[in-house]
From TrEMBL:
This is Colicin transporter. The keyword Transmembrane applies. Residues 256-337 are annotated as: Disordered. Residues 305-315 have a biased composition (Gly residues). Residues 282-295 have a biased composition (Polar residues). Residues 256-274, 316-326 have a biased composition (Low complexity). It comes from Bifidobacterium choladohabitans.
Length: 356
Protein backbone atom coordinates (compact mmCIF):
# COMPACT_ATOMS: atom_id res chain seq x y z
CA UNK A 1 0.00 0.00 0.00
CA UNK A 2 2.79 2.28 0.94
CA UNK A 3 4.64 1.35 -2.20
CA UNK A 4 1.71 2.15 -4.22
CA UNK A 5 1.46 5.67 -2.66
CA UNK A 6 5.11 6.22 -3.29
CA UNK A 7 4.81 5.35 -6.93
CA UNK A 8 1.87 7.66 -7.24
CA UNK A 9 3.74 10.52 -5.73
CA UNK A 10 6.67 9.85 -7.98
CA UNK A 11 4.39 9.87 -10.95
CA UNK A 12 2.96 13.18 -9.96
CA UNK A 13 6.34 14.78 -9.64
CA UNK A 14 7.29 13.55 -13.07
CA UNK A 15 4.17 14.99 -14.56
CA UNK A 16 4.42 18.40 -12.84
CA UNK A 17 7.89 19.22 -14.03
CA UNK A 18 7.12 19.68 -17.64
CA UNK A 19 4.16 21.92 -16.83
CA UNK A 20 6.23 24.25 -14.75
CA UNK A 21 8.79 24.54 -17.48
CA UNK A 22 6.22 25.35 -20.04
CA UNK A 23 4.82 28.18 -17.99
CA UNK A 24 8.08 29.78 -17.21
CA UNK A 25 9.27 29.93 -20.86
CA UNK A 26 6.79 31.66 -23.16
CA UNK A 27 6.21 30.25 -26.59
CA UNK A 28 7.99 31.88 -29.43
CA UNK A 29 5.92 33.57 -32.14
CA UNK A 30 6.67 32.20 -35.52
CA UNK A 31 5.61 34.50 -38.36
CA UNK A 32 3.97 33.14 -41.40
CA UNK A 33 6.31 32.15 -44.13
CA UNK A 34 8.79 30.62 -41.75
CA UNK A 35 10.53 33.85 -40.66
CA UNK A 36 12.31 34.33 -37.43
CA UNK A 37 10.18 35.28 -34.44
CA UNK A 38 9.81 39.09 -33.81
CA UNK A 39 9.79 38.97 -30.08
CA UNK A 40 7.04 41.92 -30.09
CA UNK A 41 9.24 44.79 -31.41
CA UNK A 42 8.06 47.49 -34.07
CA UNK A 43 10.17 49.14 -36.81
CA UNK A 44 11.64 52.55 -36.00
CA UNK A 45 10.38 54.24 -39.20
CA UNK A 46 6.74 53.50 -38.40
CA UNK A 47 6.29 56.20 -35.75
CA UNK A 48 7.39 59.19 -37.92
CA UNK A 49 5.21 58.00 -40.77
CA UNK A 50 2.23 57.73 -38.55
CA UNK A 51 2.89 61.18 -37.09
CA UNK A 52 3.25 62.71 -40.58
CA UNK A 53 0.05 61.12 -41.73
CA UNK A 54 -1.77 62.48 -38.71
CA UNK A 55 -0.38 65.98 -39.30
CA UNK A 56 -1.40 65.91 -42.95
CA UNK A 57 -4.85 64.78 -42.03
CA UNK A 58 -5.15 67.54 -39.46
CA UNK A 59 -3.88 70.18 -41.91
CA UNK A 60 -6.18 69.02 -44.65
CA UNK A 61 -9.06 68.92 -42.27
CA UNK A 62 -8.20 72.44 -41.11
CA UNK A 63 -7.99 73.72 -44.66
CA UNK A 64 -11.27 72.15 -45.55
CA UNK A 65 -12.86 73.55 -42.44
CA UNK A 66 -11.44 77.00 -43.10
CA UNK A 67 -12.70 76.91 -46.67
CA UNK A 68 -16.12 75.93 -45.46
CA UNK A 69 -16.15 78.67 -42.87
CA UNK A 70 -14.81 81.28 -45.30
CA UNK A 71 -17.35 80.26 -47.89
CA UNK A 72 -20.07 80.69 -45.35
CA UNK A 73 -18.72 84.09 -44.32
CA UNK A 74 -18.47 85.19 -47.97
CA UNK A 75 -22.01 84.04 -48.65
CA UNK A 76 -23.27 85.88 -45.60
CA UNK A 77 -21.42 89.06 -46.62
CA UNK A 78 -22.75 88.82 -50.16
CA UNK A 79 -26.30 88.33 -48.91
CA UNK A 80 -25.96 91.23 -46.47
CA UNK A 81 -24.59 93.51 -49.19
CA UNK A 82 -27.37 92.64 -51.59
CA UNK A 83 -30.05 93.22 -48.98
CA UNK A 84 -28.55 96.60 -48.07
CA UNK A 85 -28.43 97.66 -51.73
CA UNK A 86 -32.01 96.50 -52.29
CA UNK A 87 -33.21 98.52 -49.33
CA UNK A 88 -31.29 101.53 -50.58
CA UNK A 89 -32.79 101.18 -54.05
CA UNK A 90 -36.24 101.38 -52.50
CA UNK A 91 -35.37 104.95 -51.46
CA UNK A 92 -33.33 105.94 -54.51
CA UNK A 93 -35.39 104.66 -57.44
CA UNK A 94 -36.18 106.96 -60.35
CA UNK A 95 -39.68 107.72 -59.03
CA UNK A 96 -38.44 108.54 -55.56
CA UNK A 97 -35.64 110.74 -56.87
CA UNK A 98 -38.22 112.65 -58.94
CA UNK A 99 -40.27 113.21 -55.77
CA UNK A 100 -37.20 114.47 -53.92
CA UNK A 101 -36.38 116.90 -56.72
CA UNK A 102 -39.95 118.19 -56.75
CA UNK A 103 -39.88 118.70 -53.00
CA UNK A 104 -36.50 120.44 -53.22
CA UNK A 105 -37.98 122.91 -55.71
CA UNK A 106 -40.74 124.08 -53.34
CA UNK A 107 -40.31 127.69 -52.17
CA UNK A 108 -41.00 129.19 -48.77
CA UNK A 109 -44.00 131.15 -50.02
CA UNK A 110 -45.63 127.94 -51.24
CA UNK A 111 -45.79 126.19 -47.87
CA UNK A 112 -47.67 126.66 -44.67
CA UNK A 113 -44.53 126.13 -42.54
CA UNK A 114 -41.30 127.59 -43.92
CA UNK A 115 -39.19 125.43 -41.61
CA UNK A 116 -39.92 122.40 -43.76
CA UNK A 117 -38.15 124.06 -46.69
CA UNK A 118 -35.05 124.65 -44.56
CA UNK A 119 -35.04 121.03 -43.36
CA UNK A 120 -35.37 119.79 -46.93
CA UNK A 121 -32.36 121.82 -48.05
CA UNK A 122 -30.28 120.44 -45.17
CA UNK A 123 -31.23 116.85 -46.02
CA UNK A 124 -30.27 117.32 -49.65
CA UNK A 125 -26.87 118.62 -48.56
CA UNK A 126 -26.31 115.67 -46.20
CA UNK A 127 -27.15 113.21 -48.97
CA UNK A 128 -24.59 114.95 -51.21
CA UNK A 129 -27.21 115.76 -53.78
CA UNK A 130 -30.17 113.94 -55.22
CA UNK A 131 -28.60 111.25 -57.34
CA UNK A 132 -28.67 107.48 -57.54
CA UNK A 133 -25.77 105.84 -55.64
CA UNK A 134 -23.59 103.32 -57.47
CA UNK A 135 -22.98 100.44 -55.06
CA UNK A 136 -22.41 96.94 -56.47
CA UNK A 137 -22.41 93.55 -54.81
CA UNK A 138 -20.67 90.83 -56.87
CA UNK A 139 -19.88 87.27 -55.93
CA UNK A 140 -16.34 87.77 -57.20
CA UNK A 141 -15.70 90.46 -54.61
CA UNK A 142 -13.81 89.49 -51.44
CA UNK A 143 -15.68 89.17 -48.19
CA UNK A 144 -14.12 92.33 -46.82
CA UNK A 145 -15.22 94.41 -49.81
CA UNK A 146 -18.70 93.01 -49.59
CA UNK A 147 -18.92 93.97 -45.94
CA UNK A 148 -17.61 97.45 -46.72
CA UNK A 149 -20.15 97.89 -49.52
CA UNK A 150 -22.93 96.78 -47.21
CA UNK A 151 -21.82 99.31 -44.58
CA UNK A 152 -21.68 102.10 -47.17
CA UNK A 153 -25.15 101.22 -48.47
CA UNK A 154 -26.50 101.34 -44.93
CA UNK A 155 -25.06 104.80 -44.30
CA UNK A 156 -26.43 106.17 -47.56
CA UNK A 157 -29.78 104.54 -46.83
CA UNK A 158 -29.94 106.43 -43.56
CA UNK A 159 -29.26 109.74 -45.31
CA UNK A 160 -31.93 109.10 -47.91
CA UNK A 161 -34.35 108.02 -45.19
CA UNK A 162 -33.94 111.48 -43.66
CA UNK A 163 -34.29 113.03 -47.12
CA UNK A 164 -37.51 111.11 -47.71
CA UNK A 165 -38.92 112.27 -44.40
CA UNK A 166 -38.05 115.90 -45.15
CA UNK A 167 -39.58 115.62 -48.62
CA UNK A 168 -42.84 114.30 -47.19
CA UNK A 169 -42.95 117.12 -44.65
CA UNK A 170 -42.40 119.91 -47.16
CA UNK A 171 -44.87 118.39 -49.61
CA UNK A 172 -47.51 118.07 -46.90
CA UNK A 173 -46.95 121.70 -45.92
CA UNK A 174 -47.36 122.77 -49.53
CA UNK A 175 -50.56 120.76 -49.89
CA UNK A 176 -51.94 122.26 -46.68
CA UNK A 177 -51.39 125.78 -47.95
CA UNK A 178 -52.86 124.88 -51.34
CA UNK A 179 -55.95 123.50 -49.59
CA UNK A 180 -56.39 126.68 -47.55
CA UNK A 181 -55.95 128.83 -50.65
CA UNK A 182 -58.42 126.75 -52.65
CA UNK A 183 -61.05 127.01 -49.92
CA UNK A 184 -60.59 130.76 -49.66
CA UNK A 185 -60.77 131.17 -53.44
CA UNK A 186 -63.97 129.14 -53.59
CA UNK A 187 -65.56 131.22 -50.84
CA UNK A 188 -64.71 134.40 -52.71
CA UNK A 189 -66.04 132.99 -55.96
CA UNK A 190 -69.30 131.96 -54.27
CA UNK A 191 -69.77 135.53 -53.03
CA UNK A 192 -69.11 136.93 -56.50
CA UNK A 193 -71.57 134.49 -58.05
CA UNK A 194 -74.27 135.33 -55.51
CA UNK A 195 -73.95 139.08 -56.19
CA UNK A 196 -74.08 138.54 -59.93
CA UNK A 197 -77.14 136.32 -59.60
CA UNK A 198 -78.96 139.10 -57.74
CA UNK A 199 -77.80 141.94 -59.99
CA UNK A 200 -78.53 140.15 -63.27
CA UNK A 201 -82.22 139.62 -62.62
CA UNK A 202 -84.05 140.88 -65.70
CA UNK A 203 -80.81 141.94 -67.38
CA UNK A 204 -79.90 138.79 -69.30
CA UNK A 205 -80.75 137.76 -72.82
CA UNK A 206 -81.19 134.12 -71.74
CA UNK A 207 -82.44 133.48 -68.23
CA UNK A 208 -81.21 129.87 -68.41
CA UNK A 209 -77.71 131.16 -67.73
CA UNK A 210 -78.88 132.39 -64.34
CA UNK A 211 -80.36 128.98 -63.58
CA UNK A 212 -77.02 127.38 -64.41
CA UNK A 213 -75.29 129.84 -62.11
CA UNK A 214 -77.64 128.96 -59.26
CA UNK A 215 -76.88 125.26 -59.75
CA UNK A 216 -73.14 125.96 -59.70
CA UNK A 217 -73.53 127.88 -56.44
CA UNK A 218 -75.41 124.96 -54.87
CA UNK A 219 -72.79 122.45 -56.00
CA UNK A 220 -69.96 124.66 -54.73
CA UNK A 221 -71.54 124.59 -51.28
CA UNK A 222 -71.21 120.80 -51.24
CA UNK A 223 -67.46 120.75 -51.90
CA UNK A 224 -65.55 119.05 -49.07
CA UNK A 225 -62.52 116.90 -48.30
CA UNK A 226 -58.81 117.49 -47.77
CA UNK A 227 -57.88 117.74 -51.43
CA UNK A 228 -57.49 121.17 -53.01
CA UNK A 229 -58.58 119.82 -56.40
CA UNK A 230 -62.21 119.44 -55.30
CA UNK A 231 -62.40 123.11 -54.34
CA UNK A 232 -60.58 124.23 -57.47
CA UNK A 233 -62.98 122.28 -59.66
CA UNK A 234 -65.96 123.87 -57.92
CA UNK A 235 -64.45 127.33 -58.35
CA UNK A 236 -63.81 126.64 -62.04
CA UNK A 237 -67.44 125.58 -62.53
CA UNK A 238 -68.59 128.78 -60.82
CA UNK A 239 -66.33 130.90 -63.01
CA UNK A 240 -67.70 129.27 -66.16
CA UNK A 241 -71.27 129.98 -65.05
CA UNK A 242 -70.34 133.56 -64.15
CA UNK A 243 -68.84 134.09 -67.60
CA UNK A 244 -72.00 132.83 -69.30
CA UNK A 245 -74.20 135.17 -67.26
CA UNK A 246 -71.93 138.14 -67.99
CA UNK A 247 -72.03 137.33 -71.69
CA UNK A 248 -75.81 137.16 -71.57
CA UNK A 249 -75.99 140.51 -69.76
CA UNK A 250 -73.75 142.07 -72.38
CA UNK A 251 -75.83 140.60 -75.19
CA UNK A 252 -79.02 142.08 -73.75
CA UNK A 253 -77.34 145.44 -73.21
CA UNK A 254 -76.22 145.54 -76.84
CA UNK A 255 -79.67 144.50 -78.02
CA UNK A 256 -81.26 147.25 -75.90
CA UNK A 257 -78.86 149.84 -77.31
CA UNK A 258 -79.65 148.78 -80.87
CA UNK A 259 -83.39 148.91 -80.17
CA UNK A 260 -83.06 152.39 -78.66
CA UNK A 261 -81.05 153.57 -81.65
CA UNK A 262 -83.65 152.20 -84.06
CA UNK A 263 -86.46 153.88 -82.10
CA UNK A 264 -84.64 157.20 -82.16
CA UNK A 265 -84.06 156.85 -85.88
CA UNK A 266 -87.75 156.09 -86.42
CA UNK A 267 -88.69 159.28 -84.54
CA UNK A 268 -86.30 161.37 -86.59
CA UNK A 269 -87.65 160.22 -90.00
CA UNK A 270 -91.10 162.03 -89.80
CA UNK A 271 -89.43 165.24 -88.69
CA UNK A 272 -86.97 164.94 -91.56
CA UNK A 273 -89.82 164.38 -94.03
CA UNK A 274 -91.69 167.44 -92.69
CA UNK A 275 -88.58 169.55 -92.96
CA UNK A 276 -88.03 168.38 -96.53
CA UNK A 277 -91.64 169.28 -97.45
CA UNK A 278 -91.32 172.80 -96.01
CA UNK A 279 -88.07 173.27 -97.85
CA UNK A 280 -89.66 172.27 -101.12
CA UNK A 281 -92.67 174.60 -100.56
CA UNK A 282 -90.41 177.50 -99.70
CA UNK A 283 -88.27 176.88 -102.77
CA UNK A 284 -91.38 176.70 -104.98
CA UNK A 285 -92.83 179.95 -103.58
CA UNK A 286 -89.55 181.77 -104.09
CA UNK A 287 -89.45 180.54 -107.66
CA UNK A 288 -92.94 181.87 -108.50
CA UNK A 289 -92.23 185.17 -106.84
CA UNK A 290 -89.05 185.55 -108.86
CA UNK A 291 -90.92 184.74 -112.08
CA UNK A 292 -93.61 187.34 -111.32
CA UNK A 293 -91.03 189.96 -110.60
CA UNK A 294 -89.34 189.24 -113.89
CA UNK A 295 -92.63 190.01 -115.70
CA UNK A 296 -93.03 193.41 -114.11
CA UNK A 297 -93.12 196.27 -116.73
CA UNK A 298 -90.64 199.03 -116.44
CA UNK A 299 -92.11 202.12 -114.92
CA UNK A 300 -92.52 204.95 -117.34
CA UNK A 301 -93.31 208.46 -116.08
CA UNK A 302 -96.26 210.25 -117.64
CA UNK A 303 -95.51 212.77 -120.37
CA UNK A 304 -97.10 214.54 -123.42
CA UNK A 305 -96.67 212.99 -126.78
CA UNK A 306 -97.91 214.76 -129.97
CA UNK A 307 -96.85 216.91 -132.83
CA UNK A 308 -95.24 220.00 -131.54
CA UNK A 309 -97.29 223.17 -132.11
CA UNK A 310 -100.13 221.31 -133.80
CA UNK A 311 -103.54 221.91 -132.53
CA UNK A 312 -105.01 218.67 -133.63
CA UNK A 313 -102.83 216.42 -131.62
CA UNK A 314 -104.01 215.64 -128.15
CA UNK A 315 -101.82 214.41 -125.36
CA UNK A 316 -102.28 210.98 -123.90
CA UNK A 317 -101.00 210.00 -120.50
CA UNK A 318 -99.80 206.44 -119.80
CA UNK A 319 -101.44 204.75 -116.96
CA UNK A 320 -99.42 205.07 -113.83
CA UNK A 321 -98.02 201.98 -112.25
CA UNK A 322 -99.62 201.15 -109.01
CA UNK A 323 -97.60 201.94 -106.04
CA UNK A 324 -96.73 199.24 -103.57
CA UNK A 325 -98.61 199.44 -100.35
CA UNK A 326 -96.64 200.89 -97.52
CA UNK A 327 -95.85 198.66 -94.67
CA UNK A 328 -97.76 195.76 -96.20
CA UNK A 329 -96.55 192.24 -96.10
CA UNK A 330 -97.72 191.35 -99.57
CA UNK A 331 -96.35 192.66 -102.88
CA UNK A 332 -98.12 194.18 -105.91
CA UNK A 333 -100.21 191.74 -107.90
CA UNK A 334 -98.57 192.46 -111.25
CA UNK A 335 -100.48 189.76 -113.07
CA UNK A 336 -103.73 191.49 -112.28
CA UNK A 337 -102.34 194.84 -113.15
CA UNK A 338 -101.12 193.60 -116.55
CA UNK A 339 -104.47 192.03 -117.32
CA UNK A 340 -106.20 195.32 -116.58
CA UNK A 341 -103.87 197.34 -118.72
CA UNK A 342 -103.51 195.15 -121.73
CA UNK A 343 -102.97 196.97 -124.99
CA UNK A 344 -106.37 197.48 -126.67
CA UNK A 345 -106.76 196.11 -130.09
CA UNK A 346 -107.63 199.55 -131.49
CA UNK A 347 -104.36 201.18 -130.53
CA UNK A 348 -103.81 203.86 -133.20
CA UNK A 349 -100.57 205.12 -134.28
CA UNK A 350 -99.48 208.20 -132.58
CA UNK A 351 -101.37 207.35 -129.47
CA UNK A 352 -99.98 206.10 -126.24
CA UNK A 353 -100.36 202.35 -125.91
CA UNK A 354 -99.85 200.69 -122.62
CA UNK A 355 -97.31 197.93 -122.35
CA UNK A 356 -98.81 194.76 -123.58
Amino acid sequence: MADHDGEGAAGLESVSDPVVSEVSAPAAIVPEGGGAPSNGRRPKWMVPVVVAVVVVVVVVAGLVGWRVVESRRHGAALDSCRRAVKTLKGKTGSDRLAQYREAAGIKSDQVKDAKTVVAMARSVKDAEGIKEPTIRCKASMPTGELNAAADQAGKIDGKFAALSKAAKAVTASRDAKALDDARAALDGKKGEAARLLADSDGKVADNATRDTLQQAIDQAGQAKGDKAKAYRDAADALQAAIDRVNASVQAKSQADQQAAAQAAQAQKQPAQRQGTTRHRQTSSGNGRRGSTQSRRPAYRPSGNRGSGGGGGGGSSQAPAAPSAPQGGNGGIDWDQWIDQHKTPSSCHAGEFCPIG
